[in-house]
Structures are given as C-alpha cells and as structure tokens.
Design a protein that fits this description.
2 domains; 3 helices; five-stranded mixed β-sheet; Chitinase A, domain 3
Length: 154
C-alpha cells in the first residue's frame, strides 16, 4: 500500500519536542509492560485492578506513539529565515480591536494561542498568509467581521 500524505511543516523546536516525547513514551512503555507482566502473574485477571490499569496505560501510550510517529513521518522542518511576507515560521504583529499582538505562524499541530502560536490554517492565519507589513485584512468571526493591520513581520 502506498502512503500518500501531505508534508507537515514544523519548527525545529516543535520537531525536537516530538522526538523527545517519542523517546519518553518508549521508555514508559517498557516500564508499563513490566508492570503488566507482574500483574498478570498475580492470577485472576477479571478482578485485577493493576492488570486492567496497566493495559489501559499501554493502550494510551500506543495511541500517543502512533500519533507522534505519523506526525514525524510527514514532518518537514522549516529553517528559520528572514521573512518579508507572512508565511510559516514568521513572527507577525497584528493591530486589531484589542491592540497589538505578536504571533508566530505555525502549523495546526503546533498551534497554541496561549503561547502566541497562530495556526496558518486558522481564520486569522489564512487571512494574513502571503500578506506584507502594512496590509489590512478582514476576518469573519461568529461575532462579525474583524479588521486587522499587519504592522510588522520578522
């Protein structure tokens, strides 16, 4: 079966975190498998809480590892560079109704508004992609249209 996927852009920092998480989860999986073996040796599995919990943990770790491996299979690390337009990896300052706010443009897999990481596929991200400093954009939100001005790109 041929796997057809779209490359997923990641910053180096986010890619390194995925690698670190994968390594940590692999170590955790070994420890959980040891606990599962000990719990299995206790006998009656139908009322063995330690066995049930270890199986649950093992399943959770497996799901996380599959997700991380898929992201890493499709990952493309985008090197930092000077930006003149809004694109992946650019730091963008927007002036809007609530003042100025600076965001790092990232993929939806890195998006974290609490840490000012804006997904390029979000409504605001989509509206500002490939724009230049000084450009104005309008974004339709559930509360109506909101206008933003791009004041800086770096």
């Amino acid at each position: 079966m041929i796997k057809i996927s779209n490359p997923i852009p990641f910053t180096k920092k986010a890619h390194d975190k995925l690698l670190s998480d994968r390594s940590r989860l692999r170590k955790e999986r070994v420890e959980v498998m040891k606990r599962l073996k000990v719990a299995r040796e206790m006998g009656d599995l139908s009322e063995n809480g330690a066995y049930t919990y270890a199986k649950f943990e093992l399943g959770s770790i497996g799901r996380q590892l599959r997700r991380i491996n898929q992201l890493l299979d499709d990952a493309v690390v985008v090197e930092e560079r000077v930006h003149v337009i809004v694109e992946f990896g650019a730091s963008v300052t927007l002036s809007g109704p609530k003042g100025n706010k600076t965001y790092l443009i990232v993929s939806e897999h890195e998006s974290d508004l609490e840490n000012n990481k804006l997904a390029m596929t979000s409504p605001i991200g989509s509206a500002i992609m490939e724009k230049r400093a000084g450009d104005e954009v309008s974004v339709v939100t559930p509360r109506g249209e909101v206008k933003y001005k791009i004041t800086a790109i770096s």
